[in-house]
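Before relying on records like the one below, remember that each one covers exactly one chain. Contacts with other chains, cofactors or solvent are not represented anywhere in the record.
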Amino acid sequence: MNLEELKNKINSISDQLIKIEETAPTRVYLSCEAEKVYNICKFLFEDVKARFVISTAIDADNCYEVIHHFAYDQLSTFINVKAFIRDRNKPLIESITPIIPGAEWIEREMHDTFGIEFNNHPNMKRLILADDWPQGICPLKKDYEFKKLR
C-alpha cells in the first residue's frame, strides 16, 4: 500500500473521528472520543496492519487524553490515535488489550499513574505503584501534590 492508499483507507473511518491531522508527511493524528477508540485501533491493527508501538496518557486542561501510537513500517509512517476522556471524575476508556495483548502493561501503568480505568482489561492490577500506595492518589495527575522525602 502506498501513502495515498493509506490515507484513503484512513479516510474510510472519518465518520468515527473528530479530525485527521497530518503534522508531518509521515505522522498522522486521528482524534476521537473515548467511545470510538477500540474500533479505530482494531481497524488500524487488523485492517491496515499497523504495528502497535506504545500508548501514552496526558492530563490535559479539560480532559484526559490516551494516545495509542502505531507504526506503518512499509512507509515509515506513524499513526497516533488520540482519544479524549471527557469525564475527569470517572475516567473510563475501552481497553485495546483484547485485540492487542502487548498493550496490557502500558494500560496498567496509565491506570496506576493517572487513575484511568480500562474497561474489559483482563488484569487491571497495580503494575508500578506499591501495593500500599493510597487508592485514588495518582502521581501523574495535575492535582497530585508531591511531598518531599525527608
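The domain at 3-86 is CATH 3.30.460.80 (Beta Polymerase; domain 2).
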